[in-house]
Each structure stands twice: as C-alpha cells, then as structure tokens.
Amino acid sequence: MSHDENVEPKCCRRDFLGKAGVSAFLTAVGLAGVGSLVGLSPSVMPDPSKQFKIGPPQDFPPGTARVFEEEKVVVISDEEGIYALSLVCTHLGCVVTLDKGREQFDCPCHGSKFTMEGMVMKPPAPRSLDRYEVSLVSGGQMMVDQNVRLGPNEKLKV
After folding, report:
1. How far apart are CA 129 and CA 113, in angstroms?
2. Where are the alpha helices (DSSP H) in the chain?
3. Comparing 4 with 76, which gets the higher pLDDT?
4. Which of 52, 55, 137, 147 has its CA 20 to 30 Å from the CA of residue 70?
C-alpha cells in the first residue's frame, strides 16, 4: 500500500456547501413548524365578562343613581324605568363623576358635562355617554350588559 492510499479524501468545497445548504433548509423548516404550533395558542388573556348583576329592581326606587366603580357604570332609576350609563367620557376616555347636587356628570379632564340621561351639555365630548342594556335575569335580579349599547331613551320598564 502506498502512502496515498491511507489518507482519507479531503472534503471538497462543493460537498461542504451542499451539506450546509441542506442543514440550513431543514433548520428553517423546523423553526417554521415550531412557530406555527406556538401561534395556535392565544398570546393574550380573554377579556373579562362585561355583564354584571346589580340586584333586584326594588333596590332601585325612582331617583336612585348607584355608581359601580369597578365597571365604570352608573345605574339610574327614574319614573320611566331603569338604565345604565358608561362613566367613560366620549372625548378622551376619562372617568366622569356624578354631581348629585346639580344632577349632571362632570369630566375632570377637559370640562365636558353630561345630563343625567347622558346627553352632552358642554363639549368637547363629541357624543353622549354610552347606554347599556339592563335586563331581568333568573332569581329576580337585574343585569347590566356592557356588550349591548342602546339608544338614548331605552330603559328597563319595571
């Protein structure tokens, strides 16, 4: 045997580039597959329920205005029925406050004022406060559904 027969052949550049290309392709396909599987699971938490119980109708005699701070809603009862208004100003999203003495809502940020019906009395708010559905549910309870917006004069008749 000659000295040349014991030496293993050197890897040529063409073989190296071919193997490197195949490895890169397989790596890219594998990462794309993993990314697809990760994308199937939601990356955000679902929104909390926008429905909440407020109690029986007898807890809301005419003239009642009860603020639900956590939900940013006020439930008002008058002679015509019960309705719920958002406490979020339609101008820039500040939380309005109820001024019971003047029977109005005031925005502390930019000075908008709203009637007890939610109508704009003083801009810059571009529109009325949102009005939400109030309905009777099992057990004689009432529920506010912030997913359902109503027109300006709609109320739950009790």
Report:
1. 10
2. 13-39
3. 76
4. 137
Helix (H, G, I), strand (E, B) or coil at 106: strand
Task: Work out whether the CA dihedral 18, 21, 25, 31 comes out positive or negative.
Answer: positive
Query: What are 116's two structure tokens?
Result: 């007890």
The answer to whether 82 and 57 have CB atoms below 8 angstroms apart is yes
Distance CA 107, CA 113 (A): 6
CA distance 67 to 87: 9
Please state whether 148 falls in left (phi above 0), alpha (psi between -120 and 50) or beta: beta
Look at domain 51-150 and name its CATH class.
mainly beta
**Whole-number pLDDT of residue 37:** 66
Q: Give the mean model confidence (pLDDT) for residues 74-101.
A: 95
- What are the structural domain ranges in the chain? 3-39, 51-150
What is the residue whose two structure tokens read 């019906």?
A: 117
- Measured distance CA(105)–CA(126) in Å, rounded: 15
Residue 52 reports pLDDT greater than 60: yes
